[in-house]
Amino acid sequence: MNDEYRIHDREYFKRLWEHHRPDSIKHTAEIWDSRAREWAKELKEDTSFQKTLDARVRETTKYLNEQGLLNPGDNIIDIGSGSGRFTVEFAKTSEHVTGIDISPEMLTLGKTYAMSEGVSNTSFVECNFKDADIDDYGWRKKFDLVFSSMSPAAGNLDGLNKMNAMSRGYCFNCSPIGEADNLKVKIQRGLFNTHEKQESLWSGRYFYSLFNLLWLDGYLPVSSYHTQEVNDMVEINENLVSYYASHFERQFPDEKNLKEKIYDILVKDADANGRILKQSRRMYGWIWWNVNEQR
Predict the structure, then answer these.
(1) 21 pLDDT exceeds 80?
(2) Of 71, 76, 114, 278, which cross-links 97 as Cys (Cβ 3.0–4.6 Å)?
C-alpha cells in the first residue's frame, strides 16, 4: 500500500474510533464507582443483568479456548475489569490474571467475587489505563493475553499501542456492533413521541475502526461475532429505571423528572407482579491478533 494513502487512512480510522458525542459519559472513577454500586445490587440476585453478563463471560471464554488463547501457565491482564467476572473466569484455567480498573468500588466487586469463587491467582490494581506508564507498572511484554471487553480504557490509539506493547502473545478486544431494545423504544416514544435513533455506542464504528487500524499496521486481525438475546420478564425497580435514565439523560439533559416519567411509562404495561417483558438483541464484535505475526 502506498504510504501516503496508508497515513491518510490511518488518520481517518483513528478519528472515527476516538470520536465522542458531546453528551458522552465522562469516564471518571466517581462515575464508575456509582455504576459499581448499582451492579452490586444486580449481581446479588438472579437478575436478567446477572444472567446475561455471566452468559457473555461463558461464551467469550469458550471462544478464547477454541482459538487457543487461554492456556495453563498464561499470564493475563483484563483492562477495565469491572465486576471481575472475566478476570475470575480466566484465572480458573491460567497461571495468573491481573484485573485493572479506574474504579475502587469495581475492584472491590472483583475481589469479592474472586473470594466467593475460591480463586486466589488474581490481582486487582487501581489504574487509569489512559494515563498509565506501562513501564512504571512493569507490564511491557509481560502478558500472554491482553484482554479488553467493552472498556473505554483502551478506546483510543494510545491504548491500542499499549496493549500491543504489553503482550508477548495475543490481544483481544470486544466492541459493540448493534442493539435493539423494546423498552428503549417504548420509553423514547412515550417521552418524546418519536422513535428516531440517536447516535449510539452500538454503531459498530469501534469494531470497524479497530480492525482497519490493525490491518494498516500490518497485523492479521481475526474477527468473529457474538449475539446475545434477552426475552425475559424483568422487575420494574430502581435499577431498571436508572439504567434507562442513564441512556436518555445524556441525550435530553433538560428533561425534568426523567426517572419518574420512565417509571410511569413502564408500569403501564406491567403485570400483576410489577414485571414487564424485555426483549433485546445485542451484537458484539470480537477481534484478536497475534502481536508477533504481521504481513
Answers:
(1) no
(2) 76
Cβ neighbors of 295 (< 8 A, separation 6 or more) are 218, 219, 220
The distance of Cα 43 from the centroid of its chain, to the nearest Å, equals 16
Domain assignment present for 275? no
Q: What are phi and psi of 72, to 5 degrees?
A: -60, 140
Confirm whether 22 is domain-assigned.
Answer: yes
Put simply, whether the predicted model's pTM sits higher than 0.85 gets the answer yes
Given the DSSP bridges, would you call strands 167-181 and 122-126 parallel, antiparallel or unpaired? unpaired
pLDDT average, residue stretch 13-39 = 76
SS (H, E, C) 133-183: CHHHHCCCCCEEEEEEECCHHHCCHHHHHHHHHHEEEEEEEEEEEEEEEHH
Average pLDDT, the chain: 89
Question: Per residue in 142-183, pLDDT tens?
Answer: 999 999 999 988 888 999 999 999 999 999 999 999 889 999
Find, among 79, 49, 83, the residue nearest to 174 by Cα: 79
